Amino acid sequence: MSLKYFFIIVQNASLLITFALLYNYLWIKNPKKNNLVFRIISGVIIGFVTLLIMSFPAIFFKGIIFDTRSVILAISGLFFGFIPTLIATLLALAYRIYLGGDGIYMGIAVILTSPLIGLYWHYFRKQWKTKKFILELLKLAFIVHIFMFGYTSLLPKDKIFITVESLWINLLFVYIPATVFLGWFMLNQELAFKNIQADKKLIETQKRFITILQKLKLSAVILNKNQEIYFLNKTFIETLNQNEEDLMGKKFYELFYDTNNKPLSELRLKDYFILPNFETIFKSKDINDIHLYWTVVQLYDLNKEIQGYALIGENITERLHYEKELHLAIAKAEESDRLKTAFLSNISHEIRTPLNSIIGFADLLIEKEDDDEKREFLTIIKYSSNKLLDIVNDIIDISRLETGQMKINREYFDIWVFISFVFKIYESDKVLLSKNNLKINLDLPDYLKGQKLYSDKTRIQQILNNLVNNAIKYTDKGEIDLSVELSRINGTDMLVFKVKDTGRGIPDNMLNVIFERFRQVEENDYRIGTGLGLSICKGIVELLGGQIWVESKVDVGSSFYFSIPFVQMGENDTNYNKDDVDEDLKVFNKTIIIAEDDQNSFYYLNKLLSRNHLKIYRATNGKEVLELMKNQKIDLILMDISMPEMSGIECTKIIRQTDKEVKIIAQTAYASLNDRDRTIETGCDEFISKPINKIELYKKINAVFQN
Ligand code: ADP
């Protein structure tokens, strides 16, 4: 190859470099580069440069010319895409046809193939810019010029060999390197521009970020990797009430204490920096401690090494202050709640003791009184006292439920016998009997006959009493149906009780409310009852493991339901209570101490026990009991738990140290606490709560002597 050809090709190369520079200004930096008109213009410009290149060719023979059109067209396809490349290709094609000569077919073939290969890369190997792009460019250049080399076969046969001989060296040392260089050069310009853009964006973002941090109502600090402050915002400066200059460059940990009030150390701070959040305390001279709750983000450089820390801190001093106050308030509320409960149990004691006497003596007098009028008065006294007792009991129950002290005593009992028994009480209810058009029915399915249930029958009766009494109270005529059935609810066998009435009904919006404490349908000054009954029922049903609900329609009637788990008796369980009927005193010739400080209560008990040749002694405190026991053999002590000087509990403990024989039945008016468990633990054989019911007393005395 002569120097002349080489020189011409170098001249071509410089045109290509000029083209590359045009790419930078015309294309990369042009925001309108995707516009169609601009694409067409670009195609014309590229075509024009191609023509220029073709105008300074290396002429091998007449009609066989070589230039770098393959390079520019391939690169055009690669960088500019379809429309500009198509236009440039068409222009080059027209010019080549116009030139004619022996190399015309080869020339046309090169003009058609080179841009196609470039376009293939542009559209189908889009990632080439991000991969090893030099290798990609080499591949592209190589393929373009392999084709070119192949096209020499389109030359007249006599010229093929001589052309190939000069061409291969040009391909290897000029065309392929030129394609790679041009591609690399253009790509570099593109990347440089993108970098500048990215830098600009970064600076803008940083500015925005700093502005946000400055305006933030939270403290913001950025530390370098040595934990020295190099950015802080206004809120932080104001929070610490210090000068910016004094804080800048200072080690962060030197400013703070940890939550244990120990100065922060660099090491500890490093521990904290692993956490997303931590708390510090700043001790200022003038005001109290400032508590800051930090969120920390580690900042990494490109090598993934820690470059610093960004911290956002919330001033939680005030919140902590309020929390402290809140805790105090809660503690206070809990304390007063506890006091309220204690007050309620005390007051219940105080009220139940005199009630005990009123009801007991009224009962005795009714039995003896022949004068009808007096008997009626006495009955009213007894009825009213019982009412009062109901209210006291309700208050005690609700306070027990609230404090979790309501005790459930489960036992086995015959459900059929039990329901039949309570139904008899409802049938003879005075209020029911006074309403001529109202009657009560019982529906007890046969399959419940003989079934033993393990539950607390006293509590079940309490719930039923409430529901039936309400039904009677709120129904003037029609029927009240009490029914029980077995039902499977959520995979568990439940006994569902239903009390249905044809009374005034309950409005929809009150259906849930009535189960809340003190809530009634008629929330005005003219209401009867306390509004406690249903909330007690709800509490007890839940303790028993069931649920309570109501369906109702105003003026049609209500149906109250409650469910309890149907736990049956196993084959070996025999300790269920058979006696649900009245019982007489079956104990004779025993010596009994009634330990009771209240005069009236003593008289009442004495009256009940003045039979069956029982010998009665009285003690007014524990000491007197012990004294009496020294002189004679005692069979039974009815031990009041709260007596002056020496309480019943204390006295029982002393007795049990030496005497395991004597029967002790504890009697108490204390409604709170787990009385039964407490007295039994102390050594009592039984427990009876005031006001004392005659039958219950006889039953318990019979029981202790039977065992
Ligand atoms: P109390 O009956 O002492 O007011 P409860 O808690 O037992 O308290 O009942 C709450 C309220 O629910 C009652 O005041 C009454 O308004 C309504 N209620 C309860 N049972 C019935 C019923 N069977 N029919 C209509 N209303 C009822």
What this model shows, in words?
This protein is of the alpha/beta class and 707 residues long. The protein has five domains: 3-195, Arp2/3 complex 21 kDa subunit ARPC3, CATH 1.10.1760; 216-315, Beta-Lactamase; 330-401, Orthogonal Bundle (Helix Hairpins), CATH 1.10.287; 407-565, 2-Layer Sandwich (Heat Shock Protein 90), CATH 3.30.565.10; 591-706, Response regulator (Rossmann fold). It has helices at 3-28, 36-55, 69-80, 82-99, 104-124, 133-150, 157-215, 234-240, 244-247, 266-274, 317-368, 372-402, 415-427, 430-434, 457-473, 533-543, 599-609, 622-631, 648-658, 675-682, 694-706, and strands at residues 58-61, 64-66, 219-224, 229-232, 277-282, 290-300, 306-315, 411-414, 438-443, 452-455, 478-489, 492-500, 548-553, 557-565, 591-595, 615-619, 636-640, 663-668, 686-689. The strands form five sheets. Strands 4-3-7-6-5 form a five-stranded antiparallel sheet. Strands 9-11-12-14-13 form a five-stranded mixed sheet. Strand 15 (591-595), helix 17 (599-609) and strand 16 form a beta-alpha-beta unit. The N and C termini lie far apart (132 Å). Adenosine-5'-diphosphate is lined by residues 466, 470-471, 474, 501, 503-504, 506, 514, 520-522, 529-535, 558.
Uncertain runs are 571-581
The overall number of domains is 5
Distance between the termini: 132 Å
CATH class of the largest domain: Mainly Alpha
Measured by DSSP, the beta-strand proportion falls in: 15-25%
User: What is the correct CATH architecture of the largest domain?
Assistant: Orthogonal Bundle
Discrete helix count = 21
